Amino acid sequence: MWTISRLSCLLAVWLCAACSSEAIQAPPYLVGVWETRTEGYADQHMFIDQTRIGFGTSSLDADGYVITKVEESRENNKTLFVVSYQDAEQAKYQLAFFYEPAGGGRITFKNQGHLTWTKRAATT
Predict the structure, then answer these.
(1) Are the beta carbons of 14 and 8 closer than 8 angstroms?
(2) d(CA 7, CA 81)
(3) 16 in a structural domain
(4) 3 lies in a domain?
(5) What predicted TM-score, i.e. pTM, was given to this entire model?
(6) Residue 103 CA: distances (Å) to CA of 106, 107, 108, 119, 121
(7) What is the pLDDT of residues 63-91, one digit of tens each?
(8) CA dihedral in degrees (74, 101, 117, 53; nearest 10)?
(9) How many independent structural domains does the chain possess?
(10) Is residue 61 situated within a structural domain?
(11) How confident is the model over 4-34, as pLDDT tens digits?
(12) How, if at all, do strands 92-100 and 106-109 pair?
């Protein structure tokens, strides 16, 4: 009897550990609302919080996705991030961008070097 209860306890602990996966979190310096003044995109914004990324055209309208992975590496002396995310239907996406910390932070999409995003200043 003692062996069965021990086995049951061990199984319960294993199930709890398997079910409680830790959420992927974006680095704190990426968290915020990002804007651009580039012609054709000035009404766009991107937000990143600790577990989600989203894109929209106004502060009230944004599509949000769950971040599933954040990879950071160096490429040509720049910090490259590849953020993997998915929608509610489990469709998977990736966004690759370079991050520069100067001036409060700048993001430049890897495939759109002409398009620079800056972090919106926090309001109090």
Answers:
(1) no
(2) 44
(3) no
(4) no
(5) 0.75
(6) 7, 11, 14, 9, 11
(7) 789 999 999 999 988 999 999 999 999 99
(8) 70
(9) 1
(10) yes
(11) 444 333 333 333 334 445 568 899 999 999 9
(12) antiparallel
